[in-house]
Design a protein that fits this description.
single chain; 185 residues; mainly beta; Porin; eight-stranded antiparallel β-barrel; 8 strands
Length: 185
């Protein structure tokens, strides 16, 4: 049993190293926690990194959070896990403005054929000037993909781009033997 589990973990790690993590550029949607409702916007910065903004409203407080997240594939390109860190600022009904830091760990699934992302996460936070100094919240999010990842067009020519040779000729500096070459112009 232990050998099978170890083999499965190694296989999953191998798959995660080969494939890309995300299939979208920008996604926006709703985030539901036990006592709060929020809106979330996620923007891809590079192959494995996103920035996420969350605006949450509860019965006694409202807050805004910015998180940087690293995405890694779990099972293929559509199912991945992410972890990240960030900060928040908000307003508590009786105490006024509060700030703090956040961490996040979650899983995300891009629904095949539909422009939706489903995610579940755990988001611990520490607060400054708040009733609760430490908070552990979990939430689920559903996001709509606003901007898809651009697909690279399949080329018939297997050795780079076909137009590269023309650009290289124009960008090259003239050599000593260029005076003997016939000009195309």
């Amino acid at each position: 049993m232990t050998k099978r589990l170890l083999l499965l973990v190694c296989l999953l790690c191998g798959i995660s190293m080969v494939s890309e993590a995300q299939k979208y550029r920008t996604a926006a949607g709703a985030r539901l926690e036990s006592d709060r409702f929020g809106l979330t916007l996620q923007q891809k910065l590079h192959q494995n990194g996103t920035i996420e903004g969350i605006v949450a409203v509860g019965s006694r407080e409202y807050s805004g959070t910015a998180l940087y997240e690293w995405h890694k594939p779990l099972l293929g390109q559509r199912f991945n896990y992410y972890l990240g860190a960030g900060a928040h600022i908000g307003n508590l009904k009786d105490h006024g403005v509060f700030t703090g830091g956040d961490a996040i760990l979650g899983i995300e699934y891009k629904v095949n054929g539909l422009p939706f992302l489903l995610s579940a996460d755990i988001k611990p936070a520490f607060h400054i000037n708040h009733e609760d100094w430490i908070q552990l919240s979990s939430g689920i999010s559903i996001r709509y993909v606003l901007v898809k990842e651009k697909k690279e067009k399949k080329r018939l020519w297997p050795f780079g781009k076909q137009n590269d040779s023309k650009k290289k000729k124009q960008d090259e500096k003239p050599g000593i033997f260029d005076i003997f070459k016939k000009k195309d112009d």
